[in-house]
């Protein structure tokens, strides 16, 4: 187990390092001078020189990479050109929205999907199974922004229970902040829940066909007993894989929902930075997201080994 | 007194298709009743009817009475109480019958706690006792072991421990030893017999192997197409063979094909020559720098095979026989030593240089279905090895070769457009043989080629092997743990143990008077219908 964990962690670190090279290189590949690109066509030579100086563009490539890498390790991602504040401050502010949003959505999605999958799998081929999988199919097909608008219409406009958008900040009180995140998390979670429910159901059904399920039944376990005690844990590997992918998506891929609800999240930060050609912010946020996704994958890999004893002795 | 289990006129349909057509069967306490039949005869479905664990869409009629309970009328809750407590069941495939995520201790204790409500500590105590009883003492096999840390035979002992943990009145064993080698088979059968005698259990032993049945069962019921063909006391049924189907099964299980010597010019030297071959697998990594001891799978093996000769390679599972076969087929490279086909070394060649040699050596596997792509038609599957020819064959030449190969194995050439699932198990093995002989090879390596087949089909396939050997002069290397196959089809035999050839010689001599320990163990453990019947008649006086 220890070997497996150490090896996974080393691979994770190596991947982060490789990713940093790619992210850094992307900035270099952009044709022309980054400073000129950021400032646009009408910039004065002086302004360009000043920015070049600030970004250290007149230093050699390797030196700049190591300087940037050193900054990453010490938490210094440079200053945003458009906002004139340290990139780290920008990111921290946005993570305070995006991380809770992703976590709530993930918990919600799993909490909906697993019971539905267990219910469906235990009643395979019945009307209840067909109906719940039909609903899940619709859930997969509905675009989440449309569903988000529907939620706004019902809960914000008509019932006036929840805010239609915006984020008051955590200083406004936990409940006020959470209230702003409820509708976005539902809009994000339901399509994810639909996908997860379908995957979990088919994983459970695969396991229910295994010989050891018959052994457990011959032991005297009831159908639900077999489902919870034997099938669920064996079906967890594909379920964990999907949950890991969904978490990564929920952190970084929520830009449309952030726009619908006017939330200051990471997705919007990247989008705005790209349109404003604020490459320093783009570089910092992309690197953070890459590292987070690698971390999530590491956690998923380690949880495989906790679930499945056969993986523990793998080098 | 009413019997422990009494099945009367049991009828079963699955999805409207009749599977059982009026089965009668009874078992007394302490009795071992064998249920014999070929695949599809309804043996397993009879057992699952007693457990009420039938597949979806099954409808059962008739009567099953167990210890005063009407099984077919019992509720699911009542059945859950019976299963694992009064009725235990052991299955065929020990490698998949245990949950890979749970320790063996948890899996045995689960049933005990479920039925007795015992505390964790008490259940653990009973788990220790039953695992010790089935030959897995806790000192060597801690409760915290996972199934993947045990061998096939050890796993089957765990499955038996689960089934017998609460001393059931009836034990059902569905082909419990079919997936095990003969030595393990003998051990597991002995264990089942001991448990039955000690606890006065009834045992329903499902088997396709008459020799096993003759060895252990008190009484036997023979099924075919969901009907009882013959039933009675084992020695009487199997010695008298009054029923034609019983006679047919007995003859097929002891079938020895007629073999004519192939006409081969014997002047070219050996067809296959294996010299001082070893295969060593490096140990698995246990730390960043540490490795466990390397595994020596094949250890300094030398032998020669003449053209047209048929040789058996016998040994227990894990003795290295399949590794040796893979090296002969150039699918794996030896760590030491060399292998030559028709005088040319093949162990040091690259894939392109191997092509001419590959044409002369082909392989037939155990599972005919698993070795075919289900989406290809028979003709295409059989033609697969033809790419080994240096000059590509024309379409008409290919067609001609496919038809010849199919005819040689007894399949009508018009069947070339069928898919694998449209053939029966025996026909699929014929297709596998057709695929092996289409390049007109000099050597065919057959890895347990008949062990997945029913006895009557097995007899036909053995005939086919004998016929191809005589007509085409193909040499065989038969890898098997079944000495009956070795006896039926080979001239010479090599006994393998722990990676070494420990004994070799003419098949009839070695199998009659084995000299090595491994050879003796195999011969003693191999079930033999005549020997078993003679012994039991002797015991009965």
TrEMBL record, chain A:
InterPro entries: BPD_transp_1_N, MetI-like, MetI-like_sf. Its main location: membrane. Pfam families: BPD_transp_1, BPD_transp_1_N. It is found in: Cell membrane. Keywords: Cell membrane, Membrane, Transmembrane, Transmembrane helix, Transport. GO terms for molecular function: dipeptide transmembrane transporter activity. It is a multi-pass membrane protein. One of its GO terms (cellular component) is plasma membrane. Gene3D superfamilies: MetI-like (1.10.3720.10). Residues 95-300 form the ABC transmembrane type-1 domain. The chain crosses the membrane at residues 9-30, 95-119, 140-162, 174-197, 235-257, 285-307. The keyword Transmembrane applies. Belongs to the binding-protein-dependent transport system permease family. This is ABC transporter permease. It comes from Phyllobacterium pellucidum.
TrEMBL record, chain B:
Pfam families: ABC_tran. GO terms for molecular function: ATP binding; ATP hydrolysis activity. PROSITE patterns: ABC_TRANSPORTER_1, ABC_TRANSPORTER_2. Keywords: ATP-binding, Nucleotide-binding, Transport. GO terms for biological process: transmembrane transport. Residues 5-250, 272-523 form the ABC transporter domain. InterPro entries: AAA+_ATPase, ABC_transp_ATP-bind, ABC_transporter-like_ATP-bd, ABC_transporter-like_CS, P-loop_NTPase. It comes from the Bacteria. PANTHER family: D,D-DIPEPTIDE TRANSPORT ATP-BINDING PROTEIN DDPF-RELATED, TRANSPORT ATP-BINDING PROTEIN. Belongs to the ABC transporter superfamily. NCBIfam families: PRK10419.1, PRK11308.1. This is ABC transporter ATP-binding protein. It comes from Phyllobacterium pellucidum.
């Amino acid at each position: 187990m220890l070997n497996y964990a150490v090896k996974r962690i080393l691979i994770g670190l190596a991947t982060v390092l490789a990713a940093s090279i790619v992210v850094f290189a992307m900035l270099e590949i952009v044709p022309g001078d980054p400073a000129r690109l950021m400032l646009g066509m009408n910039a004065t030579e002086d302004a360009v020189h000043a920015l070049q100086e600030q970004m250290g563009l007149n230093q050699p490539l390797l030196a700049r990479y190591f300087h940037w890498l050193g900054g990453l390790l010490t938490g210094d991602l440079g200053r945003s050109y458009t906002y004139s504040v340290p990139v780290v401050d920008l990111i921290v502010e946005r993570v305070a929205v995006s991380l809770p949003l992703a976590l709530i959505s993930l918990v919600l999605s799993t909490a909906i999907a697993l019971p539905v999958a267990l219910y469906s799998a235990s009643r395979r081929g019945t009307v209840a199974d067909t109906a719940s999988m039909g609903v899940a199919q619709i859930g997969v097909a509905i675009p989440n922004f449309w569903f988000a608008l529907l939620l706004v219409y019902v809960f914000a406009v008509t019932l006036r229970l929840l805010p239609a958008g915006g984020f008051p900040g955590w200083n406004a009180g936990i409940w006020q902040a959470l209230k702003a995140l409820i509708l976005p998390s539902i809009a994000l979670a339901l399509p994810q829940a639909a996908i997860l429910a379908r995957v979990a159901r088919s994983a459970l059904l695969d396991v229910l066909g295994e010989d050891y399920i018959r052994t457990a039944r011959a032991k005297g376990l009831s159908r639900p007993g077999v489902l919870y005690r034997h099938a669920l844990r064996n079906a967890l590997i594909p379920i964990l894989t999907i949950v890991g992918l969904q978490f990564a998506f929920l952190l970084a891929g929520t830009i449309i929902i952030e726009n619908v609800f006017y939330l200051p999240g990471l997705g919007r930060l990247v989008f705005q930075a790209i349109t404003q050609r604020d490459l320093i912010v783009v570089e910092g946020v992309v690197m953070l997201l890459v590292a987070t996704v690698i971390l999530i994958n590491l956690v998923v890999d380690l949880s495989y080994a906790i679930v499945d004893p056969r993986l523990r002795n793998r080098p | 007194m009413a019997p422990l289990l009494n099945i009367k006129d049991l009828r079963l349909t699955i999805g409207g298709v009749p599977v059982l057509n009026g089965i009668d069967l009874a078992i007394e306490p302490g009795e071992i009743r064998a249920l014999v039949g070929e695949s599809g005869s309804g043996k397993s479905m009879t057992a699952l009817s007693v457990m009420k664990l039938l597949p979806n869409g099954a409808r059962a009629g008739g009567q099953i009475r167990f210890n005063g309970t009407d099984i077919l009328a019992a509720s699911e809750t009542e059945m859950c109480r019976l299963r694992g407590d009064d009725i235990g069941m052991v299955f065929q495939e020990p490698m998949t019958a245990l949950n890979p995520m749970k320790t063996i201790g948890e899996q045995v204790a689960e049933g005990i706690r479920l039925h007795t409500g015992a505390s964790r500590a008490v259940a653990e105590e009973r788990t220790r006792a039953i695992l010790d009883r089935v030959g897995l003492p806790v000192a060597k096999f801690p409760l915290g072991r996972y199934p993947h840390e045990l061998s096939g035979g050890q796993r089957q002992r765990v499955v038996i421990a689960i089934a017998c943990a609460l001393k059931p009145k009836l034990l059902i064993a569905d082909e419990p030893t079919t997936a095990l080698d003969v030595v393990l088979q003998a051990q597991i059968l002995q264990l089942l017999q001991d448990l039955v005698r000690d606890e006065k259990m009834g045992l329903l032993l499902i088997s396709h192997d008459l020799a096993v049945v003759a060895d252990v069962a008190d009484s036997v019921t023979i099924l075919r197409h969901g009907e009882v063909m013959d039933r009675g006391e084992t020695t009487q049924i199997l010695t008298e063979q009054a029923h034609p189907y019983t006679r047919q099964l007995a003859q097929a299980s002891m079938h020895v094909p007629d073999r004519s010597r192939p006409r081969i010019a014997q002047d070219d030297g050996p067809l296959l020559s294996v010299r001082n071959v070893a295969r060593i697998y490096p140990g698995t990594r246990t730390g960043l720098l540490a490795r466990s001891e390397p595994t020596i799978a094949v250890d300094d093996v030398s032998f020669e095979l003449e053209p047209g000769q048929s040789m058996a390679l016998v040994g227990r599972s894990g003795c290295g026989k399949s590794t040796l076969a893979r090296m002969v087929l150039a699918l794996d490279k030896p760590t030491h030593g060399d292998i030559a086909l028709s005088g040319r070394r093949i162990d040091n060649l690259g894939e392109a240089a191997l092509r001419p040699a590959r044409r002369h050596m082909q392989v037939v596997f155990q599972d005919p279905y698993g070795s075919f792509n289900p989406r290809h038609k028979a003709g295409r599957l059989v033609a697969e090895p033809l790419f080994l020819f240096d000059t590509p064959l024309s379409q008409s030449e290919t067609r001609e070769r496919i038809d010849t190969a199919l005819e040689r194995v007894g399949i009508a050439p018009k069947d070339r457009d069928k898919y694998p699932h449209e053939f029966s198990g025996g026909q699929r093995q014929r297709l596998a043989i057709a695929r092996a002989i289409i390049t007109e090879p000099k050597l065919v390596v057959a890895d347990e080629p008949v062990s997945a087949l029913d006895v009557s089909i097995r007899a036909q396939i053995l005939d086919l092997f004998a016929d191809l050997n005589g007509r085409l002069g193909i040499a065989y290397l038969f890898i098997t743990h079944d000495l009956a196959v070795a006896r039926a089809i080979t001239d010479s035999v090599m006994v393998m143990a722990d990676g070494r050839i420990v004994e070799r010689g003419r098949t009839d001599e070695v199998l009659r008077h084995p000299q090595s320990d491994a050879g003796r163990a195999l011969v003693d453990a191999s079930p033999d219908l005549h020997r078993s019947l003679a012994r039991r008649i002797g015991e009965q006086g």
